[in-house]
Design goal:
The complex is a heterodimer. By secondary structure, chain A is mainly beta. Helix content of chain A is 14%, strand content 48%. Chain A has three helices and 14 strands. The radius of gyration of chain A is 19 Å and the shape is globular. The N and C termini of chain A lie far apart (42 Å). The chains are: A mainly beta, B mainly alpha.
Chain lengths: 302, 161
């Protein structure tokens, strides 16, 4: 156990260092290459970083490609997100790169702090469940922002390959596997008149609590198709408010899983920074019901 | 592992499909550069009518010349003509009693290499000008919703469908 604690401390340092390096790179390289190869999109039209690292809302991926690069350009960002519910803390650090407004590659490390529940489950107080999420997304058709004369949305296909770092523990709670790959199809449309963004995502997944509790379970071992929706109202060039809903599988017998929703406000004063604040409800998580609380995400990029 | 390979193959396939060139790019006729929308007459009022549009264009052109992203396209242009034709174009679109005397958007921009980034830069300068003129955000977006599709004629690098 002590070894595990030491290992975790070491890993925290290394991801902290990696995050700091990525941030320094983004801040240093971003402005230095701020020429006609970067920064062509309009403010907020690349979304923010969702909790698995893809460009989107807070909870759900959108069909937009992360970063401010348009066709022939590239963009990138790093982000850190914290969610504090009554009994848990979730921290996510990650990055995304967008290439020619066509392909997005992303990585995120999720760290779920079980706090007192960890003690109750015999894992130790403050035990942290961690997973890595490797993402890729391709824009298939449409332009969510500029094609205002048609109902055709921007459509993208994405994958999120998730690798849990404590396979033994998630298998002990009933998960079939420590790894899983979600495949999703997103459609996103901005209706400039009246300034409303709408997104719908279908996700093929067997992740329990997005994978923090592993993949598949005793109740259901196979994947299901889940729906994720977002609406956002533009209040200003730099400001949007909205709501999201994400349905979830319910694979584990010992831990009922609820749908998630949130209400958010996202602010992008410049192309280099955005801040998203939300009130989120993630329902029942293992032995604690009605988990609600604040979500704060900061993104730096270009 | 097999599912990862399947996913990778799907991704490769979709990249291939998505990057297929538009066969009919050159054959599509140019869009109407000034489609009249009588229902947007209240938006024209929010812009302060034709005098409001004229004042907006003075600010807009100054912004375009001040911004390094857009300056190269306008510094050698006949700026007074461009401003006059923009007033006419916006006025017609917003249901005003004007006549647009300019060319279609494809022809008008054919002399320049224009990317999506250039197009968005112009939109941003316009948004800043509209904010400076105190035009309500909702009215701005109702105009922009009619201008945005013109990217298909304005952006010519790479050619749009």
């Amino acid at each position: 156990m002590q070894q595990a604690v030491i290992r975790m401390k070491h890993e925290r340092t290394s991801i902290g260092a990696r995050g700091a390096l990525a941030l320094a790179l983004a801040l240093a390289i971003g402005p230095a290459i701020a020429n006609d190869r970067t920064g062509g999109k309009l403010l907020l039209t690349a979304g923010v970083s969702q909790i698995e690292g893809a460009a989107g809302g807070g909870l759900t991926p959108w069909a937009v490609i992360g970063g401010y690069g348009t066709e022939g350009q590239f963009g990138g960002n790093v982000f850190h997100t914290r969610v504090a519910t009554d009994d848990y803390r979730l921290g996510v650090t990650g990055l995304a790169v967008g290439i020619s407004d066509r392909v997005e590659l992303s990585y995120a490390r999720q760290r779920f702090d079980t706090r007192d529940v960890g003690a109750a489950l015999g894992l130790g107080r403050g035990f942290k469940l961690e997973q890595d999420v490797y993402g890729a997304k391709v824009r298939l058709a449409g332009d969510a922002v500029l094609d205002q004369d048609t109902w055709l949305p921007q459509i993208a296909l994405g994958v999120q390959h998730k690798r849990h770092r404590q396979g033994d523990i998630v298998r002990a709670v009933g998960a079939r596997s420590a790894n899983g790959t979600d495949v999703y199809l997103s459609a996103t449309k901005l209706f400039l008149d009246p300034g409303l963004l709408v997104n719908g995502t279908l996700r093929h997944t067997r992740a329990n609590q997005v994978g923090i509790l592993g993949f598949g379970g005793d109740r259901r071992g196979s994947a299901s198709v889940e729906f994720e929706g977002s609406v956002a109202l533009l209040l200003h060039r730099t400001l949007a408010v909205g709501a999201e809903y994400r349905t979830k599988p319910n694979n584990l017998g010992i831990a009922r899983e609820d749908d998630w929703w949130d209400l958010f406000v996202a602010w992008a004063p410049t192309r280099n920074v955005s801040v998203t604040l939300a009130y989120a409800d993630i329902g029942n998580v293992v032995i604690r019901d009605d988990q609600r609380g604040w979500y704060l995400s900061v993104q730096f990029g270009f | 592992m097999r599912s990862i390979m399947l996913v990778l193959r799907l991704l490769a396939l979709s990249i291939g499909l998505a990057s297929m060139p538009a066969a009919d790019a050159a054959e599509r006729p140019p869009m109407d550069p000034a489609p009249a929308h009588p229902e947007l007459r209240p938006v024209l009022d929010a812009f302060g009518g034709v005098p409001g549009l004229e004042a907006l264009m003075d600010d807009f052109m100054a912004g375009l010349l001040a911004d390094p992203r857009t300056r190269p396209f306008f510094e050698n242009a006949e700026q007074d003509r461009v401003k006059r034709q923009l007033v006419e174009q916006f006025c017609v679109i917003l249901g005003g009693d004007c006549v647009y005397s300019g060319r279609d958007m494809r022809e008008a921009h054919a002399g320049h290499v224009i990317t999506a980034a250039h197009f968005n830069a112009l939109v941003e300068v316009l948004q800043v000008s509209m904010n400076r003129r105190g035009i309500p955000f909702r009215a701005q977006n109702r105009l922009l919703a009619k201008l945005a599709p013109m990217h298909r004629d304005v952006v010519n690098e790479p050619p749009r469908r």
